[in-house]
C-alpha cells in the first residue's frame, strides 16, 4: 500500500473527521470566549477596581530605545488568558457532565431490565427440553 493510499485511509476514518470538526469548533469557541472575556467581563471588573484596563497592565523591564521595542511583562494579558481558560474549562466540564449523566441514565435503564419470573424460567426450560427431544 502506498503512502498516499495509507494517508487517504487514515483521513477518511470517522474519528479523524470528528476530531477535525472538534478542533475547528474549538478554535471558534476559543475566539468567542476571548472576546467575551476581553470585551464583556474584564471592563466591568476593571471599572470596579478603579478604572483599570487589564490589557494595559504590565511591568516594563527595559524602556524602548530607538527602533528597539520595550521589554515588558504583560501580566494583564496573562490574567485575561487565565480567565479565558477557566471559562473554556468550565464549559467543557459542563458538557462532559451532561454527556455522562445521559450515559448513566442509559446504563441504569439497561440494568433495570427485570429478571425473568419463575414462570418464564420454567417455560424456557420446557422449550429447551422440547427442542432437544425433537433433535433426537
From TrEMBL:
UniProt keyword terms in alphabetical order: Cell inner membrane, Cell membrane, Ion channel, Ion transport, Membrane, Transmembrane, Transmembrane helix, Transport
Chief place where the protein resides: membrane
Native organism taxonomy: Bacteria, Pseudomonadati, Pseudomonadota, Gammaproteobacteria, Aeromonadales
Similarity-based family: Belongs to the MscL family.
Function: Channel that opens in response to stretch forces in the membrane lipid bilayer. May participate in the regulation of osmotic pressure changes within the cell.
Record's protein name: Large-conductance mechanosensitive channel
GO CC annotations, alphabetized: plasma membrane
Membrane topology qualifier: Multi-pass membrane protein
Species annotation: Aeromonas simiae
InterPro entries: Mechanosensitive_channel_CS, MS_channel, MSC/AndL, MscL_channel
Amino acid at each position: 500500500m502506498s503512502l498516499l493510499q495509507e494517508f487517504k485511509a487514515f483521513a477518511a476514518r470517522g474519528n479523524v473527521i470528528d476530531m477535525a470538526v472538534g478542533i475547528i469548533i474549538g478554535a471558534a469557541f476559543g475566539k468567542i470566549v476571548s472576546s467575551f472575556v476581553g470585551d464583556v467581563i474584564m471592563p466591568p471588573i476593571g471599572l470596579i477596581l478603579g478604572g483599570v484596563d487589564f490589557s494595559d497592565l504590565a511591568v516594563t523591564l527595559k524602556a524602548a530605545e530607538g527602533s528597539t521595542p520595550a521589554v515588558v511583562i504583560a501580566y494583564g494579558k496573562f490574567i485575561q488568558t487565565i480567565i479565558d481558560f477557566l471559562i473554556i474549562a468550565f464549559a467543557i466540564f459542563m458538557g462532559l457532565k451532561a454527556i455522562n449523566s445521559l450515559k448513566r441514565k442509559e446504563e441504569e435503564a439497561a440494568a433495570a431490565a427485570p429478571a425473568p419470573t419463575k414462570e418464564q424460567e420454567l417455560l424456557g426450560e420446557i422449550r429447551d427440553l422440547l427442542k432437544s427431544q425433537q433433535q433426537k
